[in-house]
Design goal:
The chain has about 525 residues and is α/β, with parallel strands linked by helices. It is built from 22 helices and twelve strands. The strands form two sheets. Strands 5, 6, 7, 8, 9, 10, 11 and 12 form an eight-stranded mixed sheet that branches. The structure holds S-adenosylmethionine (SAM).
Length: about 525
């Protein structure tokens, strides 16, 4: 992973005498640090032989001999399983583009780390990754040279403990220095000690005015640094919200750990069953339940794919598609989920197709689907199609490219197009994702989204409906795509999607809807419902 907020210049800026930093320009894109080459080839901080002492690969420590060759010698730091695990995750994210939320559970399991240590390791790694942009700005002010990537990761870890966790300063500094001495070397440990002491001399609230641009001059840059988001993403969120008023609340929500949300697939499980397993009913979706603690995989209904982990916004956009009246299409309805992998929405659509929208029927909803549809779920990637097959029961699942349809035109009553997108709406779930996304990719994605929407509209029969969904609020992936496709076709009308989400407010002025983490507690899902004219 590359570093955020770095512009050219060989040395970091230092705080000037007024306590204000000479700021780096806030870069639009994360970039590799100086030198253009591989950071790993540079010499370590100490200029000495620290690297020879460094543990190999940041991997699993089990089975390796301790520093003292069997017995820990006096004066040697003890291994701190939580901080070592967090450090390994940070290194893997940086060096191998690992996904923290996939790697951390595996690493905890492999090393037998449980309970409080597991919770601490997770908070250390995820919190550090989320706040990385803010911590880097502070580290740059406090250090007198560019740290090597592994040293920077250790500094970020220390900064997170000092500035955002309730770890006492002496413990935050001491444990991080111990970790660096063990994993990197004594020279780097000295440097880290000095920088962390400077960082710990102020609170986060005191640092922010020093390292962040003045909000009066640069409101977006200010929010980017104070809320740890790349500037281009803050701009994109402001454009999608239509003003800056809610930006701080949105960015704050993005930095908070989301509740685990479950879906009880109708006819296969129920919210009551999930409640009995410790969950509480969701706010909007009649199939949602929130799990405050515990491993969802331990719940029988989840293990048996009768229920699953699924964001409430994702549930609602799928449900909305099933609630649009499409007239009588003949015998049982035919549904298509065109980009189905890994199968979250397909799992819910599959259950409703077979058993009906049982909660909607129980509420007397006149458009609640009665059941008896057949679902075809497709994904261009075999391994993702396989995941769909594993999580659905009755659907037919194929590997297919939605831009080159293998199905007959106008053969479906309802089509779900959950388009490949930047995923900017789900940043709270993947702590490092915000620093990985690249605005340069949006144009290519936009072309694919337009092509897929075109084939989705071709696939639906007259009177049928297409749900265009993204897990991104970026206008270039949402309203602009819809506007362009509608401008080129006269056989499609946009429905007011809010009508199919009764009881959910704050969805915008329509006809599309936009969910927001700070308003709804969901991912920032976008939904447009498009009907093919009869
Ligand atoms: C946003 S994800 C879909 C998430 C899924 N609907 C769910 O709820 O779990 C987008 C999916 O589109 C697939 N995809 C990308 N290009 C595609 C194409 N040309 N045809 C079909 N699927 C495609 C990707 O492999 C990815 O699985």
């Amino acid at each position: 992973m590359t570093r955020p907020f770095r512009e050219g210049g060989a040395r970091p800026f230092r705080a000037n005498e007024n306590g204000n930093s000479e700021r780096r320009a806030q870069g639009e894109r994360p970039r590799r640090s100086q030198g253009g080459g591989d950071d790993r080839t540079r010499r370590s901080q100490s200029g000495g032989d620290d690297r020879a002492r460094r543990s190999e690969g940041g991997g699993d420590d089990r089975g390796r001999r301790s520093q003292g060759g069997g017995q820990r010698r006096a004066g040697r730091p003890a291994r701190d399983v939580a901080r070592n695990a967090a450090f390994d995750v940070l290194r893997a994210v940086d060096e191998r583009d690992a996904y923290a939320n996939l790697l951390m559970p595996r690493l905890l399991r492999d090393r037998g780390i449980r309970g409080r240590d597991a919770a601490l390791a997770t908070e250390l790694a995820y919190g550090t990754l989320r706040g990385l942009g803010t911590y880097d700005a502070i580290i740059d002010v406090c250090g007198d040279r560019e740290p090597d990537p592994d040293v920077r990761d250790a500094l970020r870890l220390g900064a997170h403990q000092l500035l955002r966790m309730r770890v006492p300063p002496h413990a935050a500094v001491g444990t991080t220095v111990d970790l660096v001495r063990l994993r990197i070397g004594p020279g780097a440990a000295k440097f880290v000690n000095a920088v962390l002491r400077k960082i710990g001399s102020r609170t986060l609230e005191e640092w922010l005015p020093i390292v962040a641009p003045d909000p009066a001059d640069d409101p977006v840059g200010h929010l980017a640094v104070t809320h740890g988001h790349p500037r281009w993403i803050v701009s994109a969120f402001r454009d999608a919200l239509g003003s800056s008023d809610e930006l701080p609340a949105l960015l704050e929500a993005d930095n908070a750990r989301p509740l685990v949300t479950l879906v009880a697939r109708p006819g296969r499980s129920s919210v009551a069953e999930l409640e009995a397993a410790g969950a509480m009913p969701g706010r909007y979706s009649p199939y949602a339940a929130y799990l405050r603690e515990g491993d969802p995989g331990q719940i029988d209904a989840v293990a048996e794919t009768r229920a699953a982990v699924q964001d409430e916004g994702s549930q609602l956009v799928a449900l909305a598609l099933t609630r649009v009246p499409v007239g009588n299409g003949g015998d049982g309805e035919k549904w298509l989920d065109m980009c189905a992998g890994p199968g979250g929405k397909a799992g819910l659509l599959d259950a409703i197709a077979t058993h009906g929208d049982l909660a909607g029927q129980a509420d007397g909803g006149s458009t609640a689907f009665a059941g008896g549809a057949r679902l075809l779920a497709a994904d261009v990637q075999y391994h993702r199609a396989r995941l769909v097959w594993e999580t659905t029961r009755d659907a037919s699942v194929i590997t297919a490219d939605g831009t080159e349809p293998v199905w007959r035109p106008e053969s479906f009553d309802r089509v779900m197009l959950d388009a490949p997108c930047t995923g900017l709406g789900a940043l709270r779930r993947r702590p490092e994702a915000r620093w990985r996304r690249d605005p340069a990719g949006i144009a290519d994605l936009g072309r694919l989204q337009r092509r897929l929407l075109g084939t989705a509209l071709d696939a639906v029969r007259p009177g049928g409906v297409v749900a265009y969904v993204t897990c991104s609020p970026h206008l270039a992936e949402t309203r602009v795509v819809i506007g362009d496709v509608l401008a080129r076709r006269d056989d499609v009308e946009q429905l007011d999607a809010r009508l199919y989400l009764p009881g959910v407010d704050g969805l915008g002025d329509g006809p599309h809807v936009q969910f927001w983490p700070h308003r709804h507690g969901t991912d920032a899902m976008f939904l447009s419902l498009l009907r093919k004219r009869a």
